[in-house]
Structures are given as C-alpha cells and as structure tokens.
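Q: How would the structure tokens look for this protein?
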Amino acid sequence: MITAVSAEMKAGPAAADEGRPLAAVLHRACRRCLYTTAHPLGLTLDDEGICSGCRVHEEKDRLDWAERWHRLETLVRPYRSAGGRNYDCIVPVTGGNDSYWIVHQVKHRLGLNPLLVTYNKYFNTALGIRNLANLRIRFDCDILVQNVNPLSVKKLTRATLRRLGSLYWPCLAGQTVFPVQTAVRYQVPLIIWGAHQGLEQVGMFSHEHDVEMTRRYRQDHDLMGLEADDLPGLFDTLKDEDIWQYRYPDDAALHAVGVRGIYLGNYVRWDPKAQHEQMVERFDYRSARFARTFDTYDHVDCWNFMDLHDRLKLHKHGYSKVTDHACREIRHGRLTRAQGLALVRQHEHAPLQQMDKFCEWLGLDASGLNFILDQHRHPRFWPETRRGEWAFAGWSTAEAAGSGSEAPSILFEANDRLDHAGQDGYITVGKGHP
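A: Here is the predicted structure in token form.
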C-alpha cells in the first residue's frame, strides 16, 4: 500500500518514516506532484520531499534556451545533405502526440529537409489518419509508412498481452525501431525525436546531460526488457518470420552510417499544451476528448492507448495516463496539486469504450479478455477482497482530498471527436484523407 504524504513530511523524511511499516516507507509521494517512488521508471525524493522529476523540471525556468537552440543549430549543421542529394534527417511521426511541433521545429526553424517515418500500429482512428495526412501536406514532406504483416502483429499482440500484460509491445517496438532501420537503409545518420520520457516524467536525466536515444533505454523501458529475438524463446507460437521486422540494426550497421538519435526536448523548453495550441492554430491539428483523461491532444490517433492500454497500466502500476498529464500540468503551474488529484480520481476508473473493437480485431471474446486483464492486477495496488473482486489501493487513494480540490471543468479544448460515424473497426491502412 502506498502511503500518503502527510503533515509529518514537513519535518523531513526520517521523521515521517519513524515507526512506519517498511512497505509504507518504500513508496512515498512527492509533495509537489502526484508521482510516488513506486514509479516504474524510477524516481527519488530529496530531503524536502520533492521528486527528481520536479527538480529536473525546474531547469526549464533557469536554462538559457536561446543558447541551447544555438547549440542544436551547430549540432545539425554537419548533417545537411551536400547538394540536397539526400534527406537531412529522419523524424518519427504519428497522427497524434507532438509530431506537428517536432516537424515545425525541424523544417521551419532549423531549415532541414526531413524524411518522415511512421509505424502503422493498426489501431488507427479516422482522426489520426486525417492528422497524419494533413501533417504531410502542410509541411510538404516525404513520408514512409511501415505496414508489418497483420497476421504477425496479431500473433505478437496475443503473446505479449497474455504474458506481459501489454497489447502495445509491437507498437512500441515498431515506433522505436523503424526510424533507426530507415536511417541505416537510406544512410541518413541523424534521427530527431521529441522529448525523453524518462527526463520529462521522473528526472532520470538532466537537460544538460544531452542524453541521446539508445538501444539499451529502448529495451529496458519501452520493451519491458525484451528484444525481438527474445520472444520466440518465450512464446512457442512465434517464429523468426514474425519478429524480424522489429530487430534493431546491429552495431556494425549503425557505426557504418554513424546513426545517432537526439531529443529535441533537450534544446527547446518542452510544454505539450502550449505547443499543441500553437499547432491547432497554425496548422489545423485536430484534438478530441477522452473518457480516461482531460488532455485532448495526446494519442488521438489510437483507439487503444487511452483506453485498454491505459487500463492495463492502472492494473500493473497503480496509476494511469491521467496521472502523467496531471503531474505535467502541476509542474507547469496550471493546476494545483489538489486539482490534479481531483482530475485523476475523476478519470482513472472511467469504463472502457473500445473493448469490442479490440476483441473483434484479435479474435477474443470479452470474457476471455477480462480474464487476461485480471491476471495482470498487481496485488500491491489491487488486493483481492473475495474471489474475482478487487479493492483499488493505487496512488490516488493514498491521501484525502484537500482544500481547493474541485477539478477544473475545462483545461484543454477539443476541436474534433473520436466517435466518427461509420468507423466500426480500426482503419488498417490509411493512404490519405478525403
């Protein structure tokens, strides 16, 4: 059970921990945001009870971002293609998230000619397909789309859902490896990613570390410790023909091209809400409302990320994406901690809305899927009260609501919707938008 941050914490961690059970001491909450030391990416608290993620976020207000942008301009200069005979860089994109902002910085501010790449996750919304087509047209960029054999994708999804509690392993693997494969294939060494999750959420690194994308970070965090070649040994249903598209290029191939992946978030003051609002106004990015969070910009391209995938996160880790969004907004000063907690409690148990689409796509019935979901409830956050019934003891239950805890009615605007008429299933392959 996660402990609440109480008034005792004002006396310092040692005083607050005195006499507490060991399990309670091990998982304490930040006094500023809503994260706890149970965060799966790893998080620490300082002597004032403030987490490493909040401390690294403070760098956003003290760093010289003009100087850091100049450093980025110097970094990319050698990668410009001589005579325009090749692309200058690779930029991974989707029909959601920060893609518009990244391409805007790369093409309009840096003046680079990017090759856009995207992995088809197969859970596509019509809105996501529309955003991706609009991105390509507005920025006048070439784009490559990887469509892995859907039979192999379904086999991978069944295996990782059952054993790892992840229906998103193929998506994460594809999104993080296809840009690197493309860099090797087209001999374009520079890949420009957005923000580093470990830096933005938990302060795993400082902006000043200038951390770059690595095979190791991808394996340990994005892929839950499993590379593609590990899967056939764990799941006897998988063969080499099912996993080869997800293999990371070997070191010799990477070295021959000189591939490196940099994070734009190290050189730009990252603020997703402000960035998206600019992209809506300037380039007609479309957003939509979700049941399980208040953020209207994130992952509008996918039926499952803020639905079934998010429910699995709550089962396994005791918190869901709405906590990530609330912590971000608290750090940017747009929410109080009490308001953030109220929003989390309002959204995190919202019922699934897209379960039928997933069951039809994967060939499962609802009872079978619910059985799999229940197998991945972490007992620390979901003690079983009687057979088949669980009490929730996740992060948001650790403390009582404080004053000013009413959730804001509107924090994020939406200019589109996800429930498009006529889309009963996923858009498997999107070639454009009418």
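The CA atoms of residues 355 and 370 lie 10 Å apart.

The beta strands are 89-92, 114-119, 142-146, 190-193, 260-263, 384-386, 389-390.

Upvote if useful.
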